[in-house]
Amino acid sequence: MTPLDQLPEIRTELYIDGESHGAGDSLQVIDPADGTSVVGYAAAADAKQATSAVAAAHRAFPAWSARTPEERAAALVAALAPLEAERAATAEILTRENGKIRLESHIDSVVFEHRFQLAAGLAGEVGQLTVLPAPPYRTEISHVPLGVVTIIVPFNWPLAILAASLPQALIAGNTVVVKPPPTTPLATVRTVELVARALPPGVLNVVTGTDAQIGAALIQDDRVRKVCFTGSPAGGKRIMSMAADSLTRVALELGGNDPAIVLDDADLGPDAMHRLFAGTFDSTGQICMAIKRLYVHRSRYDEVVEGLSGLLAATRLGHGLDERVTMGPLHSRRQLAYVQELLGQARSSGAEVREFGAPAEGADLSRGNFLRPSLVLDPADDTRVVTEEQFGPTLPILPFDDEDDAVARANDTWSGLCSSVWTDDPGRAAALAARLRTGYTFVNAHGAGSLDERAPFGGFNHSGMGREMGIEGIREFMDTHSVGFPS
Known about the structure:
Elements lengths: L9 E3 L1 E3 L2 E3 L3 E6 L7 E7 L2 H20 L2 H11 L7 H12 L3 H19 L2 H4 L3 E3 L4 E9 L2 E5 L5 H5 L3 H6 L3 E5 L6 H11 L7 E3 L4 H9 L4 E7 L2 H12 L4 E5 L4 E5 L7 H12 L9 E7 L3 H13 L2 E2 L15 H16 L3 E4 L2 E2 L14 E4 L6 H4 L6 E7 L2 H9 L6 E5 L3 H8 L6 E4 L20 E2 L4 H6 L2 E9 L1
Parallel strand pairs: 1-5, 8-9, 8-11, 9-10, 11-12, 13-14, 13-20, 14-19, 15-17, 18-19, 20-21
Antiparallel strand pairs: 2-3, 4-5, 6-7, 7-23, 12-22, 16-18
Helix pairs in contact: 1-9, 2-4, 3-4, 3-8, 11-12
């Protein structure tokens, strides 16, 4: 691995109306693996520049929306051409600013392009009419684009998450302003700008900056017709409150406290255990749809604990660019302190906390946001590590004896993003999945790697509103229009 102090600093600008623009200030991006190395600087827009991005998107809307969905899709697919040559650089930058291992950063970039291709494949459905025959009227029902859309992206999987809404908004006929995360803006800006340069000016813009400086301009401008936000429930409430002043629509993909239920007949062989492990601990547990609570039938409890313990023991912590490392740091110091607080409360309540893993050879964990992964065994249901979203490398494992009790406990939460059922009986899996109050239920798997990206995705309860991906994800960015003809 190249020494961190020898890696180049990355600088990105704003991209508005088909041109790059500097700013009077910048966001400094620090590597979370050591807390001191400067990865680079992103231009920090002021409110006037954010407003100019909205204005550019507004000007570009009539011509872009006048194209057919197929024409828009073809333009987007062609715009992806430069991404492959930049893949390695994108992954390296994303790992440096985010902390996750290089393989995950590479996947993040690949998924960005894959989701564009999937959305483009739905272009033929965008303009479909529904006709209600006469009498008394012949009525045609169609869908039309909204206008300017703001998309606000989180730090953890910024490219993949952006591509769950960006291509859908564009293929629907909208124009877009993207706001990357302020702590991990660099790879996202570079990627979005590559795509935007191949599109008409103003169709796709990217603006970096602080929420205090540019948030109101990107959310409350009357020309913004929808805001798409991915982040925490608290962040979603702020966005929704701000959008209320201008009656701007919102789509919110928020946090999850995902339950997984392992039944007594589950296959717990090596492959299944790896899926269980990955569904929990990928990206150092910083995934909204990761397993956050694991309910295991008492007859299989020891087997699950032993299996996960063996995999966790092999974890090697360090900088994500080191190919020997399997788990990077948490992204922020604040999140590290929060997860440590949850574990401290679990210990004080009487639960057993087992920690695993070791630093990779030569890795110094003292300066970065590192936390050894852990299992919290048989905590009470009201323990904070059970009731709150950890968003870190820890997992409470809770035994159950009765299936109805497991379902009730799984549903007793503020969230409703994802869930999973682990059983060898497909009928039993379907029956139990139907009772779980989440937007997506996996069977014998869990997490983004097992997601069918053709299907709509989104949460119940405080996990959000609206859906991403699939034709439903495109319709999120359209209005319904009915035209009635007298018979």
